[in-house]
Amino acid sequence: MLDILSSDYYPASLLQAARILVDQDEGYDLPKAVATVSLAPAQAAGLHDRGEIREGLRADLVRVRSYKKQFVVNQVWRTGQRVF
């Protein structure tokens, strides 16, 4: 059973981890896999202002595209402002 995936040294690995969870067909759809690397770690760390897309939260977002079985970052927003 897996509840949380987190990384403090290579955040891009979390994108690949979410992709692997979906591809392995072990009961993870994309929303559940993303929550495993975003919402679950945020809640475990007591960061209740982030981890999901919901009104009133920080609006830290990453837009990705799928390329050769990997997620590649296209754009990043921090507190609702585009930074990449």
Shape designation: globular
Q: Please bin the fraction of helical residues.
A: 25-40%
Radius of gyration: 13 Å
Order of helices and strands: HHHEEE
Q: Going across the major beta sheet, what is the strand order?
A: 1-2-3
Strand coverage percent: 15-25%
Description:
α1 packs antiparallel against α2 (30-37). A hairpin with a 2-residue loop joins β2 and β3. The termini are far apart. The longest helix is centred in the first third of the chain and has 12 residues, at 12-23. By secondary structure, the protein is of the alpha+beta class. It is globular and about 35 Å long. The protein has 3 helices and 3 strands; from the N terminus they run αααβββ. The mean pLDDT is 93. Strands 1-2-3 form a 3-stranded antiparallel β-sheet.
Which short descriptors sum up this protein?
3 helices, 3-stranded antiparallel beta sheet, 84 residues, alpha+beta, 3 strands
What is this structure, in a nutshell?
The chain has 84 residues and is of the alpha+beta class. Helices cover 31% and strands 21% of the residues. It has helices at 12-23, 30-37, 39-44, and strands at 61-67, 70-78, 81-82.
